[in-house]
Design brief:
Layout: H1 7-10, E1 33-35, H2 37-43, E2 46-51, H3 61-74, E3 79-83, H4 87-99, E4 102-108, H5 114-122, E5 126-130, H6 134-147, E6 151-152, H7 158-164, H8 166-175, E7 181-185, H9 190-204, E8 213-219, H10 224-227, H11 249-259, E9 262-266, H12 268-282, H13 291-302, E10 311-316, H14 325-328, H15 341-347
Parallel strand pairs: 2-10, 3-4, 3-6, 4-5, 7-8, 7-10, 8-9
Antiparallel strand pairs: 1-2
Helix pairs in contact: 3-4, 3-7, 4-5, 7-9, 8-9, 9-11, 12-13
The protein binds ligand F0G.
Length: 351
């Protein structure tokens, strides 16, 4: 028996590494593909959840970051920088620790979840809160990486896409072929770009017989790709995807069009409904942005766009513990009882 070695060792022949590349890993990837019983019943399909919150820092970003930091180390970088809505920065900070590098982080002030801020802090990154949104942070990070000795590890770094494409490999390896539809939340659009690249590579090498239709969902208040124009002041409770000018916009359109897919929007209300359903009906606790994929699938099903009998994978991108405010908000305070079995039994409805 052996333990999962991380995406670079598991998919070495499909990634741009050599025998001398210094692999920086936390054994990311190898995440659960969980059958979703209630979603399957609701859609008449075979729905699976790719649970990316099970990665070492709690999001899919670790797949891209092991590659980006490995290549930065190979090239001799001493410091890395990223703009982030919180997950990229948590991941960059952790992998920088493993690589012995300095990590600089730019986040939109007041707009990242507490758990993610805690991660960047405890991993020891240098954090600046920027008086602007994610798009402003990314412009600043690009400018700094062009003018100072610091490597950019946002998904505009092609090695990030290379690492993230391995999620598609895992899904095909687990199912025996590509699904019919793959559903993702879309923010900066790196992940939908990466999944599509992975599916295409496996199909080109006949590991799979087909590629899925790629379905991406943005939050309504932050839906530039759906609207066809930059959103100057993006808003949504799903702070991870609060992005008005996605860097991989054109690649997302290509993934949609080449695959015969779609990119649509879901409201915050729909996101929260899917968020609660995932936890209370499927036992999978995700952060709000992650629920956008499932919200999108449910919306499409209600619109009659989902033919029954299809095999569908929804990626749920981040762990619910990153942003637990939404789990607690609106829920009743638990009742306090004395240390008394009869009283506890009565309150629990057991008596
Ligand atoms: N879901 C989560 C939990 C995310 O953190 C992100 C992006 C996305 C979905 C969207 O993925 O950008 O590849 O389309 N988070 C970035 C960050 C922007 O800084 O952590 P995408």
């Amino acid at each position: 028996s052996h333990q999962w070695r991380g995406i670079i060792e598991e998919y070495r022949d499909r990634l741009p590494v050599s025998d001398t590349t210094p692999v920086v890993t936390l054994r990311e990837g190898g995440t659960p593909l969980v059958p979703a019983q209630v979603l399957s019943e609701r859609t008449g399909c075979e729905v699976h959840l790719k649970v990316e919150g099970a990665n070492p820092t709690g999001s899919f970003k670790d797949r891209g970051m092991t590659m980006a930091i490995t290549k930065a180390k190979e090239e001799g970088a001493k410091a890395v920088i990223c703009a982030s809505t919180g997950n990229t920065s948590a991941s960059a900070a952790a992998y920088a620790v493993r690589a012995g590098m300095v990590c600089a982080v730019l986040v939109p002030q007041g707009k990242i979840a507490l758990g993610k801020m805690g991660q960047a802090l405890v991993y020891g990154s240098k954090i600046l809160q920027v008086d602007g949104n994610f798009d402003d942070c990314l412009n600043l990070a690009r400018a700094l990486s062009e003018n100072y000795p610091v490597a950019l590890v946002n998904s505009v770094n092609p090695f990030r896409i290379e690492g993230q494409k391995t999620a598609s490999f895992e899904i095909v390896d687990a199912l025996g072929d590509a699904p019919d539809i793959h559903v993702l939340p879309v923010g900066n659009a790196g992940n939908i770009t990466a999944y599509w690249k992975g599916y295409k590579e496996y199909a080109a090498d006949s590991v799979s017989t087909s590629t899925p239709r790629m379905w991406g969902f943005q939050a309504s208040g932050s839906a530039p790709i759906v609207r066809g124009e930059i959103v100057k002041d993006p808003s949504t409770i799903a702070t991870a995807i609060r992005i008005g000018n996605p860097a991989s916009w054109q690649y997302a359109l290509a993934a949609r069009d080449e695959s015969g897919g779609l990119i649509d929007e879901v409201t915050d209300r729909e996101i929260l409904r899917a968020y609660k359903l995932l936890a209370s009906q499927e036992g999978v606790f995700v952060e709000p942005a992650s629920a956008a994929s499932v919200a999108g699938l449910l919306k499409a099903a209600e619109q009659g766009k989902v033919d029954p009998g299809q095999r569908i994978v929804c990626t749920v991108t981040g762990n619910g513990l990153k942003d637990p405010d939404w789990a607690v908000a609106g829920a009743p305070q638990p009742v306090t009882v004395p240390v008394d079995a009869a009283a506890a039994a009565e309150r629990l409805g057991l008596a």
